[in-house]
Design brief:
It contains 21 helices and twelve strands. It is α/β, with parallel strands linked by helices. It folds into four domains: about 5-105 and about 125-150, Mannitol-specific EII, Chain A; about 165-265, Response regulator (Rossmann fold, 3-Layer(aba) Sandwich), CATH 3.40.50; about 290-470, no CATH class; about 475-640, no CATH class.
Length: about 650
C-alpha cells in the first residue's frame, strides 16, 4: 500500500488551534468526522480517551500518536496535525508536543493497513524525519517526507530479517515488545531498544507483538544463545520459552523511555532468572512489571473485566423481570419467568467466571478450571467448619461464601497452580505432556475443592452472613454515610482503583443477593456518584464559559450523553487538565448525590445503565433529583474555583 493513501493531504491540519490535550483530541476527532473517515464521533473519541487513560500517547521529542481501532472507522487513515506553539500533552519527557499523528484503523482491518500504520510509527523514531516535518510548509511536503522515509525503513527491515543470528563477537540479547493496541508503542519500544543496543555495543533481536501480528519471531536457538531477555510489554506474551534465562520484565513505556537501563541490567547480570514453573523466592527476584499490590490489582481486574458482562446483562434482565412482575402480569407470566430465569442463569456464572480469570491471570491456562470450580463452590456450598452442604443460595437460610469467597478462590487456585508447576518442574521432559492433561487438572481440582470445602467456605460464609445482616439492618444514618462514601469514591480517579473498589463493593453486595433492597441502594449510590462528574463538567461549561477553553466547552456538550449513560470517563480530560479543582468538586457533588440516595432509600435493581434504567428504580424521581443536585453542586464548585482562561 502507498503510504499516501493513509496520510491523505486533505485531512492534514498544518496549524492546530487547540491549546490543551483535550482540545487537540476534540479538534482532530471532529476533523476526521467532517472528512468522513469516521461515522461515529463519540465512539471514536471515547476509544481515543480510553487509550490515553492507559498511558499517554505523548511519545516525547515533540511527538504524540493518539490512536483507536474500532467500528466507527470507515477507512484506515493517519491524520497529520502540527502545533507551532506546542501543547502540553502529558508526554513522557514532559515537553510540549508539536507533531500529532492520529491513527484510525477500522475494526477488522486487514494486515496491509496495519502494516502501513506500523511503518508510520517506526519512521517517527528518525530525528531527521521529525525535523523535516516541523519545517514542512504544505501537505505535499509531508507526504514526500514520509514516502521517502517509509521506503528506507522497509528496506532496513528486509535487511534485518535476512541477517543470521549473531556469531558471538558481541553480547547478544533478545527482546519482546507489545502493547494492547499494537500500533505505536510496540514499534517505538523496538526502535529505541535497537538504538540503545547499538550504542552499548550489543547485538539484539526484538520480537514485536503488534497489530500486524508477531514479527521477527524469536527462535529457540536465538533464545538459547542470548545472555538475557528484555520484555517491554503491556499485554501477555509467551513466557515459557524463556525458562532459565536472565529476564527483565517492564511495561512497554520503559522500552521507550529507558531502553539502555533495561539492557544494562541484563549485561550486568542483575536481571533475575525466570522460571516458567515458578521462581524460588529465596534465590530469585520477582520479574513482574509492578509491585505486589499492583499485580494483585491487575489480577483482580482481569477477573472483574470478564465478570462484568454477566453482572450487567443478568442484572438488567432480572430488573426488567421485576418490572413485569409488578406491572405487566405478575410472577406467573411467561415474560417474567423468561426474563428472571435468563438473568439468574447469567448471575450463576458471575462468581465462577470472576474466580476463573483471577486464577488465569496468576497461573495461566492450567489455573482456569480450578478457579472456575472454586468460584462455583463459593456460590453453592454453605456450612460451618468441617463440612458443608449444597443449597439454593438465594432462597435458603444461611449464607454461601459468595462474592468474597469467589475472589479468594481465584487467588488460591492461581497460586496453587504456580506451586504445582514448581513442584513438577524437574520431571523428565518425556513426561511434559502429562502435566497439562493429567497432573494439573486432577491435583488442582482436588486441592481447591479441599481448601474451599473445609476452610474458605466456612470462613467466608460466616463473614458474608454478618455483612449481609449488617447491610440489611443498617439504620438510615449509617446508610447515608456509606452511600456518600461509595459515591464519592467514584469521582476520586474516575475509572481507576478507587472507582473500581466502590463499584465492586456495591456489585458484590448485589451479586450475593439481587433481591436485597440495601444492595440495590448501594448500586444506585455508585451510579449517581459515577454520573456526577460528566454532568458536572457539562454544567460548568455552560454556567462558567469563561473558565473553560473552547474545546472543553465542546466536550461539555458530549458529556450530557456520557453522564446519562453512567460513563464517568467523559470527565477525565477535564480532570487531567486541572485535577486540583475538578476532582475535589466532583467528589463533593458525588458524595452529596450518594447521601441523598441513602437518605431517601432510592434503589436500582440493575448494576449499570445510568439514567436509562430510571424506570427500574424505586423512588425514581429522587434518583433523578439526587443526580441533578449532586451534578449542580459539583459544577458550581468547579466553576467558582477554576481560574479564568484566556484563549488566543
Amino acid at each position: 500500500m502507498d503510504i499516501r493513501e493513509l496520510l491523505m493531504k486533505d485531512i492534514m491540519i498544518m496549524d492546530l488551534k487547540a491549546t490543551t490535550k483535550a482540545g487537540v483530541i476534540d479538534e482532530m476527532v471532529h476533523h476526521y468526522y467532517e472528512k468522513g473517515i469516521i461515522d461515529d464521533e463519540e465512539l471514536y473519541k471515547q476509544d481515543i480517551l480510553k487509550r490515553e487513560a492507559e498511558g499517554s500517547t505523548g511519545m516525547g521529542d515533540g511527538i504524540a500518536i493518539p490512536h483507536a481501532h474500532d467500528k466507527a472507522v470507515k477507512k484506515a487513515a493517519v491524520m497529520f496535525a502540527r502545533s507551532k506553539a506546542g501543547v502540553d500533552y502529558d508526554s513522557m519527557d514532559g515537553q510540549p508536543a508539536h507533531l500529532f499523528f492520529m491513527i484510525a484503523a477500522p475494526e477488522g482491518a486487514d494486515n496491509t493497513h496495519l502494516a502501513a500504520l506500523a511503518a508510520l510509527s517506526k519512521v517517527l523514531m528518525n530525528p531527521d524525519v521529525v525535523t523535516a516535518l516541523k519545517e514542512a510548509n504544505t501537505p505535499d511536503d509531508v507526504q514526500a517526507i514520509f514516502t521517502k522515509a517509509v521506503a528506507e525503513k522497509q528496506a532496513e527491515e528486509a535487511k534485518k530479517d535476512a541477517q543470521a543470528t549473531p556469531s558471538g563477537d558481541k553480547p547478544y540479547i533478545v527482546a519482546v515488545t507489545a502493547c494492547p493496541n499494537g500500533i505505536a508503542h510496540t514499534y517505538m519500544a523496538e526502535e529505541n531498544l535497537e538504538k540503545a543496543a547499538e550504542k552499548l555495543g550489543v547485538d539484539i533481536k526484538v520480537e514485536t507483538n503488534g497489530s500486524e501480528g508477531v514479527k521477527h519471531l524469536l527462535t529457540a536457538d536465538e533464545i538459547k544463545k542470548a545472555a538475557g531477555v528484555v520484555i517491554a510489554a503491556d499485554k501477555k506474551v509467551k513466557m515459557a520459552r524463556f525458562d532459565g534465562k536472565h529476564l527483565v520484565n517492564q511495561p512497554v513505556t520503559a522500552g521507550i523511555k529507558e531502553p539502555e537501563k533495561l539492557l544494562q541490567e541484563v549485561l550486568d547480570g542483575k536481571a533475575p532468572v525466570y522460571h516458567a514453573d515458578g521462581a524460588d523466592e529465596g534465590e530469585e527476584q520477582e520479574v513482574a512489571s509492578g509491585s505486589v499490590w499492583s499485580n494483585i490489582y491487575k489480577q483482580l481486574m482481569n477477573g472483574i473485566s470478564h465478570m462484568l458482562p454477566f453482572v450487567i446483562g443478568g442484572g438488567i434482565l432480572m430488573a426488567l423481570s421485576f418490572v413485569v412482575e409488578n406491572y405487566f402480569g405478575g410472577p406467573h407470566s411467561l415474560a417474567f419467568i423468561f426474563l428472571n430465569n435468563a438473568g439468574n442463569m447469567a448471575f450463576a456464572f458471575m462468581v465462577p467466571v470472576l474466580a476463573a480469570y483471577i486464577a488465569e491471570a496468576i497461573g495461566d491456562q492450567p489455573a482456569l478450571m480450578p478457579g472456575f470450580v472454586g468460584g462455583f463452590m463459593a456460590m453453592v456450598y454453605k456450612g460451618s467448619f468441617g463440612g458443608a452442604y449444597i443449597a439454593n443460595v438465594q432462597h435458603s437460610a444461611g449464607s454461601a461464601a459468595g462474592f468474597l469467597g469467589g475472589i479468594a478462590a481465584g487467588f488460591i487456585a492461581g497460586y496453587v497452580m504456580l506451586g504445582l508447576k514448581k513442584l513438577f518442574a524437574k520431571l523428565p521432559h518425556s513426561l511434559d505432556g502429562m502435566k497439562p492433561m493429567l497432573i494439573y487438572p486432577i491435583l488442582g481440582l482436588l486441592i481447591i475443592a479441599l481448601i474451599m470445602f473445609f476452610i474458605i467456605n466456612p470462613i467466608f460464609s460466616t463473614i458474608n452472613l454478618y455483612i449481609t445482616r449488617f447491610l440489611n439492618h443498617m439504620g438510615t444514618g449509617n446508610l447515608v454515610i456509606l452511600t456518600a462514601i461509595l459515591a464519592g469514591m467514584m469521582s476520586i480517579d474516575m475509572g481507576g482503583p478507587f472507582n473500581k473498589a466502590a463499584y465492586v463493593f456495591a456489585s458484590g453486595a448485589f451479586a450475593n443477593n439481587p433481591h436485597s433492597v440495601t444492595a440495590a441502594i448501594l448500586m444506585a449510590a455508585v451510579m449517581v456518584g459515577g454520573m456526577v462528574p460528566p454532568f458536572a463538567t457539562a454544567i460548568g461549561t455552560i454556567l462558567f464559559k469563561h473558565k473553560f477553553t473552547k474545546s472543553e466547552r465542546e466536550a461539555g456538550v458530549t458529556n450530557w450523553v456520557l453522564g446519562f449513560s453512567f460513563i464517568t470517563e467523559g470527565a477525565i480530560p477535564f480532570a487531567t487538565a486541572d485535577p486540583l479543582r475538578v476532582i475535589p468538586a466532583c467528589i463533593v457533588g458525588s458524595a452529596v448525590g450518594g447521601a441523598l440516595v441513602g437518605l431517601f432509600h432510592v434503589s436500582v435493581p440493575a448494576p449499570h445503565g445510568g439514567l436509562w434504567v430510571t424506570p427500574l428504580a424505586t423512588h425514581w424521581l429522587m434518583y433523578i433529583v439526587a443526580t441533578i443536585i449532586g451534578s449542580i453542586i459539583a459544577g458550581v464548585i468547579m466553576g467558582l474555583i477554576k481560574k479564568t482562561v484566556t484563549e488566543k
